[in-house]
Amino acid sequence: MNERQAIILGTGPAGLTAAIYAARANLNPLVIEGNEPGGQLTLTTEIENFPGFPEGIMGPDLMENMRKQAERFGAEFLFGIATSVDLTHRPFRVTVNETDEFYAQALIISTGASAKMLGIPGETEALGHGVSTCATCDGFFFRDKKIVVVGGGDSAMEEATFLTKFASEVTIVHRRNALRASKVMQDRAHNNPKIKWVMNHTPIAVKSEDNHVVGLEVRDNESGTTRLLEAEGVFVAIGHQPNTAFLNGQVEIDKVGYIITNPYNTATSVEGVFACGDVMDSRYRQAITAAGTGCRASMDLEKYLEGSFVHDWSMTGR
């Protein structure tokens, strides 16, 4: 039986940080890379808000450096997707690519959350080159430029309001006449003079020239006419989907699908299973906060394997 002390699922900032700490603790973790090795940062160009890089660093370079650091201390990486798990007894079973089985005394889940995309022509090709899913990450690069934000919920209002710190103009596009956002978030956006509105319009294509976004083509849902909203950036803010389907309900999750952890540590509802990064954080979703939770998860896992970690799910109040 292919058994390890620790298996880590996911290789974004959280998973790779957890791997570094677990490897330095001589746990020789097996890290399952997932279908997006390096996580969403591999789709990002320059990162300027990760501490330690005064001139910034490219997203793929940061992830590669973290991976090499983990490998240096003995972490083993396996390309593949965790398609199912059995958490009913130890050792936990992790099935990779539906066929390969691995076992672990403790498990860290850092499978992240995927940004929901529009699924329209030109969107994927321009991701990281004018199309973004994170205003906090990329807003700085659009100083004094026109931006379009797609969405009608709280996230879209928050992203649009934040982007007015940089952009000359922000246009919110929503496919309905009414927003889903809370009234306070709507009022905040409506009261911002930099924000314009295109309601009851459906995005149909991201337009680019010379590898740079030039606008978003939209269709009027009433008349059927189309037009191009000129913009150098398109921010998609229609939500995130945590990657937890493979757990099949064996770990407690919230109504959206994010893993619920103990507020005092990274323990999940299953003893010996820990979670970190965007798969359990619907609020911050930053590389540095994900890395911090990866550190915590690995330290919790180490204490658990030593027998000194107290799993008290009653402390969550659930």
UniProtKB/TrEMBL annotation:
<comment type="subunit">
    <text>Homodimer.</text>
</comment>
<dbReference type="InterPro" id="IPR023753">
    <property type="entry name" value="FAD/NAD-binding_dom"/>
</dbReference>
<dbReference type="GO" id="GO:0005737">
    <property type="term" value="C:cytoplasm"/>
</dbReference>
<keyword id="KW-0274">FAD</keyword>
<dbReference type="InterPro" id="IPR050097">
    <property type="entry name" value="Ferredoxin-NADP_redctase_2"/>
</dbReference>
<keyword id="KW-0560">Oxidoreductase</keyword>
<dbReference type="InterPro" id="IPR008255">
    <property type="entry name" value="Pyr_nucl-diS_OxRdtase_2_AS"/>
</dbReference>
<keyword id="KW-0521">NADP</keyword>
<comment type="similarity">
    <text>Belongs to the class-II pyridine nucleotide-disulfide oxidoreductase family.</text>
</comment>
<dbReference type="GO" id="GO:0019430">
    <property type="term" value="P:removal of superoxide radicals"/>
</dbReference>
<keyword id="KW-0285">Flavoprotein</keyword>
<dbReference type="InterPro" id="IPR036188">
    <property type="entry name" value="FAD/NAD-bd_sf"/>
</dbReference>
<protein>
    <recommendedName>
        <fullName>Thioredoxin reductase</fullName>
        <ecNumber>1.8.1.9</ecNumber>
    </recommendedName>
</protein>
<dbReference type="InterPro" id="IPR005982">
    <property type="entry name" value="Thioredox_Rdtase"/>
</dbReference>
<keyword id="KW-1015">Disulfide bond</keyword>
<feature type="domain" description="FAD/NAD(P)-binding">
    <location>
        <begin position="5"/>
        <end position="294"/>
    </location>
</feature>
<dbReference type="GO" id="GO:0004791">
    <property type="term" value="F:thioredoxin-disulfide reductase (NADPH) activity"/>
</dbReference>
<keyword id="KW-0676">Redox-active center</keyword>
<dbReference type="Pfam" id="PF07992">
    <property type="entry name" value="Pyr_redox_2"/>
</dbReference>
